[in-house]
Amino acid sequence: MKKLGNIFKKSLMYLLLTVVFVTAVGAVYYFCLNTKSAKAYLEQRHLNVPYKETETGQLKLDIYMPKRKLFTKTPVLVYFHGGSWKSGSKNLKEKDLELFNIFFEAGFALVSADYRLTSEVNKFPVHADDGADAVRWVIKNAETYGFHKNKVNLIGASAGGHMVLLLGMAGDRFGDNTAGNKDFQIRSIIDLCGPKDLTDLSDYTPDELPEIEDLLVEFLGGTYEEKKDLYELASPIYHVRKDVPPIFMAHGRNDEMVPFPQAEKFFQKAKSANAKVKFVPVDNANHYFQAPENETTNPPIWKVFLKMALFLLKNNIF
After folding, report:
1. Contact (Cβ atoms closer than 8 angstroms) between residue 72 and residue 54
2. CB neighbourhood size of 260 (10 A)
3. Closest CA to 266 of 243, 290, 245, 235
4. Are 117 and 83 in contact (CB under 8 A)?
5. Which pTM was predicted?
6. What's 113's DSSP letter?
7. pLDDT tens digits for range 91-136
8. HSE-up of residue 74 (Cα within 13 Å, Cβ side)
């Protein structure tokens, strides 16, 4: 027993020394990266940077640098806004930036990009074409901003969630894809309550169906019967396969705009394909992850964002 006790003490001592060593190395590494000159790079904002000319005007993006430097080259999170594909913009409010603060603290830069919105002239796939070209711009200009061109991640909510799933799984099919998928490397995808299947509307109520059908006709330029192939191209669930980038999904169980079963079906298909997918259902949450008055969501939204940050770190550390 005495011998076992000595072995245990030695093991514990080696463990403590290892922890101290790793902590010390980590501290040295952190302070080497966060020098005075490096700090000038942090928390900068580059707003309204043009990335593409289109028939209907110039498209721009905003770049928000991280709060601290945890990597020699900065990983990037490219954000696409929601708005039913026909409204919204890249412009982030301070309350939006407060939500994203956990990503800045974790050493990630954020790029928020505009894309063409649905109109008489603009129909799908122009939205995805622009999104893909925004990602290509980030990769092409990575060196200028100190980004890691192989650590480009995507995040989007609602229509933006739909966008990031399409781009993450089939981005080489959109935009200027003359170089094929060689120029389109996505590290991971975060989808917040995005539509997954535009071909199957069975989860909508009879009262909701006319409005969603009209929205899709406006978005795609025709009905499902008229444009079956286009509806399938625009449906993320049709692009699921084993080798897609890791996906993080969060969806409110009380979502009144994109039925929760859409997320469940996508998750099940992704699991069946052996894709890497993490699904966080949020109880008592609507499409905007809000709970009814005087109630709370489960898990709390701050905890959902913490899970997202850990997911990003896991997929970008090495």
Report:
1. no
2. 18
3. 235
4. yes
5. 0.88
6. E
7. 999 999 999 999 999 999 999 999 999 999 999 999 999 999 999 9
8. 33
CA distance 313 to 48: 28
Of 76, 45, 32, 57, nearest to 315 (Cα)? 76
Buried b (16+ CB within 10 A) or exposed e, 146-164: bbbeebbbbbbbbbbbbbb
- The per-residue DSSP string of 244-255 comes to SPPEEEEEETT-
Report residue 204 as tokens. Answer: 């909508």
Only one residue has tokens 């935009």, namely 175
CA gap 194, 197 in Å, rounded = 10
| 247 burial via Cβ count (<10 Å: 0-12, 13-18, 19+) | buried
Q: What is the pLDDT of residues 191-236, one digit of tens each?
A: 999 999 999 999 999 999 999 999 999 999 999 999 999 999 999 9
**Residue 250 near residue 193, CB atoms below 8 Å:** yes
Interatomic CA distance for residues 233 and 258, integer angstroms: 19
Q: Compute the C-alpha angle 142/45/150, nearest 5°.
A: 20
User: Are the C-beta atoms of 230 and 198 separated by less than 8 Å?
Assistant: no
Nearest CA among 122, 118, 133, 124 for reference residue 59? 133
252 near 211, Cβ under 8 Å? no
Q: Are 266 and 236 in contact (CB under 8 A)?
A: yes
